Amino acid sequence: MLDDMGLPENISELISNKYTEAIKNKDIEFVETKRIHFSDEHTGMDYLICLVATLAKKPERDDIDIKVKRNPFEVPEPELTVLNDALGDGRYKLVLNKFPVIPEHGLLITNKFEQQKVPLTIEDVAAAHQLARSLENDIDGQKHIIFYNCGIDAGSSQDHKHMQVLRVPEGFELLQDKIVADASATSLEPLYNKKVSFAHFVMKLPIESSKEYLYKCYTELLQKAILTKPSDLQEQKDHNVIICKDWICVIPRASTKARSMDIAFNSLGYSGIILVKHLSVFNEIANQPSQMDKLLLECGFPNVRQPID
Description:
With about 300 residues, the chain is of the alpha+beta class. The protein has helices spanning about 10-25, 60-65, 120-140, 175-180, 210-225, 280-285, 290-300, and strands at about 30-40, 45-50, 80-85, 90-95, 105-110, 145-150, 160-165, 200-205, 240-245, 245-250, 275.
């Protein structure tokens, strides 16, 4: 059966079965060797630092640019494809990420080429929210997020528009979940954690939201994010978007890589999930975890320092 947006009701089962098959056939390799969890006492933000060695095999954007450019999403990969028409409208396909950072890591890709450097459309936002809702409702309330790295400075590695689908590790509380915990879902006024260093804007969503309302939330947050940048940088719209069943978050970005450490961040970093591909960097963070807030600021813009209520 299909839900009201065309998603199969057993969507999580389809993803899980395809992932199990792909791992068995070695179409996907996933090895997470180390993980540490800590809380920043000053900001209240939780961090999950994951050493994912297989990320070192993923081509960097700089490496891609010096070779013959190729769009990997143009070539059908049935061994990774969950749904060729994910929502029944022909717009998106749902595939597994060839370089997963967490098991069953997926990609929601536009079937027609669109640029990754442009903001989400009303259809994109609605599709992301519905997929997150369907996955969470399908498997005992386990939280899923859909995130979008808009532009090179936001952490995108491919030019073809795609959102990423991730199950939040069990027991981990995202920054945004803490922010919206006691907030109302009836206001279009963004929420913040005033103690973290970097700018971020969150809106809590009602249980039932029209696609027009979801898109209005996104565009309001994006406008706030752009205005945190210096006036000479406001034409540069690189940003991260994170969407789940309960909220939407936008983070303005200045760069992908930190200046003081060999580490890069996409949307996940600004929720507290930090992906590391080199053991030396993992050990450096483990020895001084309090530096994470500073590193995230190096790649973003200063917080507006307003209270969350």
